Structure formats: structure tokens, C-alpha cells
């Protein structure tokens, strides 16, 4: 039995049926949790901020301007 780190709902988790690193979801608030220990079972909430940072890193192509902004700059200088 573990508690959701966000809403404290008790979640029935069998130590023998989960693996370290497995992702669980709270049935009440839908918070995703990672199993960080299995004897006894302990979980950590996976924050949305981490997901957003990963997406930002993936979409960052190193350009200071978007393609549209560069085109507008070119038109203004003509």
C-alpha cells in the first residue's frame, strides 16, 4: 500500500507485481508516479515541469529566431 504524493489517496500496490522504475497513475488525481523502491514500495511523483523541460530541450534547434521572424527581418531591411 502506498499513498499518492499529491492527494494522499491509498493505492493498493503489491511488492511482487511492480518493478523499480515502473510508472503508476493515481486513480483519483491521475498523478503519475515512478516506483523508486520495491521492498517496501516507495514512489515519487513525476512532475509536469520535468516533461515540459524535456520538450523544450527537444524543440530547441539553436536558432535565435523562428523562420518567420527571420523572413520579416529580411523584408524590413529591403
Distance between the termini: 68 Å
Given helix and strand content, the structural type is alpha+beta
Strand order of the largest sheet: 3-4-5
CATH class type: Mainly Beta
Mean of the pLDDT scores? 78
**Number of helices, counting only DSSP H or I runs of 4 residues or more:** 2
CATH topology: Rubrerythrin, domain 2
Main sheet summary: 3 strands, antiparallel
- Could you tell me the number of beta strands? 5
Radius of gyration: 21 Å
Approximately how much helix is present in the residues?
Answer: 25-40%
Number of domains: 1
Taken as a percent bin, the fraction of beta residues is 15-25%
How is this fold's topology laid out?
Elements: E1 2-3, E2 10-11, E3 23-25, E4 32-38, E5 41-45, H1 48-59, H2 67-76
Antiparallel strand pairs: 1-2, 3-4, 4-5
What does it look like?
The protein has 78 residues and is of the alpha+beta class. It has one domain (2-76): Rubrerythrin, domain 2. 28% of the residues lie in helices and 24% in strands. The protein contains two helices and five strands; from the N terminus they run βββββαα. The protein has helices at 48-59, 67-76, and strands spanning 2-3, 10-11, 23-25, 32-38, 41-45. Strand 4 (32-38) and strand 5 form a beta hairpin. It is globular. It starts with a strand and ends with a helix. The model has no long low-confidence stretch (mean pLDDT 78).
Amino acid at each position: 500500500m502506498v499513498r499518492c504524493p499529491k492527494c494522499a489517496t491509498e493505492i493498493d500496490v503489491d511488492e511482487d507485481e511492480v518493478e523499480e522504475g515502473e510508472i503508476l497513475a493515481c486513480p483519483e488525481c491521475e498523478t503519475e508516479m515512478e516506483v523508486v523502491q520495491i521492498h517496501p514500495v516507495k514512489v515519487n511523483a513525476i512532475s509536469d515541469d520535468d516533461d515540459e523541460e524535456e520538450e523544450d530541450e527537444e524543440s530547441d534547434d539553436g536558432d535565435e529566431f523562428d523562420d518567420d521572424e527571420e523572413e520579416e527581418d529580411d523584408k524590413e531591411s529591403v
